[in-house]
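Feature request, filed as a ticket because there's no other form

It would be nice if the structure record came with a short human-readable summary line next to the tokens. Right now we just get the raw output. Example of a typical job, pasted below so the devs can see what we mean:
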Amino acid sequence: MSLAPTALAPPTSPLFAEVAMGADSSTSIVRATVIQASTVFYDTPATLDKAERLLAEAAGYGSQLVVFPEAFIGGYPRGSTFGASIGNRTLKGREEFRKYHAAAIDVPGPEVDRLAAMAGKYKVYLVMGVIEREGYTLYCSILFFDSNGQYLAKHRKVMPTAVERIVWGFGDGSTIPVIDTPIGKIGGAICWENRMPLLRTAMYAKGIEIYCAPTADSRDTWQATMKSIALEGGCFVLSANQFCRRKDYPPPPEYTFFGIEDELTPDSVVCAGGSVIISPFGNVLAGPNYDGEALISADLDLGDIARAKFDFDVVGHYSRPEVLSLTVKDHPTKAVIFTSSDKKTEDS
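Raw output as currently delivered:
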């Protein structure tokens, strides 16, 4: 299905489900869009093509920042167990992992180069959820790009949730960036790691202003988490989720939603979206959307950050460091360290 025309779309495009406009043009306003759309599963080139169509749509409406869902490139393997149980792996599950590994991307790599070029072409800051491949380990990651077409940084999900741990490795403190840009300080956390108060505190301490939260959680309770973060951090929160039907995944037996496959039709909704944009006061600016694939936009009045933190600055005047403090280990963790490489670095 064609989601958006290749040419830049006018503001009346039906994909723009909701838009909220900033009221005070005298302050710094940033137009932001969260993308609610599904991956083309097991087909990374086609997913990149789809991403570009959606990015062009958002740019045509004047968006300066565009946030895609968790695992948009590479896919969120919803419903799959990869044939794993305690003490056992099936041949079918191993083959499923091989195909999932093949759909992931290297960072850096050609797909990252293309995403950077897309950000530069459409002059937007781009936040993209990907499945990152490093050797034979996969990570659920966010990649950040600037409007000049430069790759800026990545965040690896620190703690995959439940069965996600079977297929994804764990991030560490070296990839928790908050990037100072002309449109604000941008960072992000993925899905349920947003519930980790110490991770959030580390990001607040780095001064995050536009908090991106790609997710796979479409439940009503997710909205409470997003509002809480906006209020707690005094920041804008942009949450992007996929909207998926069963037919957006490969048909059985190639891909099976273990345990519920018999209950599903091709049009069954398996992820209902709920993408949303929230202000530092906890007010919903756009969304949540549960109607289908959509581009959900709002104008962010960055002056609201200072207005909100007048009441509550979680790592500033409302902190008590003599009572409560946090130490963040922000160095990379590696299983193998070659001292010869360290010596060469010292000699140079």
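Something like this underneath would help us a lot:
The helical segments are 44-60, 91-103, 110-122, 197-205, 220-233, 303-309, 339-347.
DSSP finds seven helices and 17 strands in the chain.
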